[in-house]
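chain below, 201 aa
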Amino acid sequence: MRCTAYLWAWLAGTVPKHPRTVVLLEGASDVAAVRTLAAAREVNLERVRLVDLGGVTNIRRGLRQARADWADAEMLGLCDAAEVRFIERALVEIGLPVRDPSDLPAYGFFVCHADLEEELLRALGPVRTIAVIERLGLGAKLGALQRQLAWQDRPLAEQLHRFCGVASGRKELLGGALAEALDLDAVPEPLALLLDRLADA
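prediction:
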């Protein structure tokens, strides 16, 4: 069986003791997606530490700890549009003059339209997303969700977003697998901008 770029990213991944760049990410699925796309684009993560915050509400503590541990490292990150306030407050607290979300990219933080899953689903489209889900052996679970009364009349995009965004192990698995299925010229803008910064670091 062919070893996917997602698996290679994890197998080859290292945690540098003295990173040049620290990327603060909301959860494990974000980490999986960034690792996978970095591998696909041949972005070297040898001096990059990807930090799973365990939720964006932990950004203040995570940012303070990262700055304490790796004072010379550049801090980057991703966030969801609905949660930019947490990023803004954290950056203001460390002395950066953030006025509104439009300032965030200048400081290396990039905003997903809704969330990372929605960005990946929109870039892939429903047909290719379902193909990934079925390849992973999760087609029956998706069908079960679609038959639930609460979800059976919802638009397919909403059903897929729900399916891909719940259950932590599945969410992480799909974060990497959906990212791997992307054409490199179709990487969602927030992820593409983050990878560009990592490539230039």
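The beta strands are 21-25, 48-52, 74-80, 109-112. Residues 5-116+185-200 form a domain with the Rossmann fold fold (CATH 3.40.50).
thats it, cya
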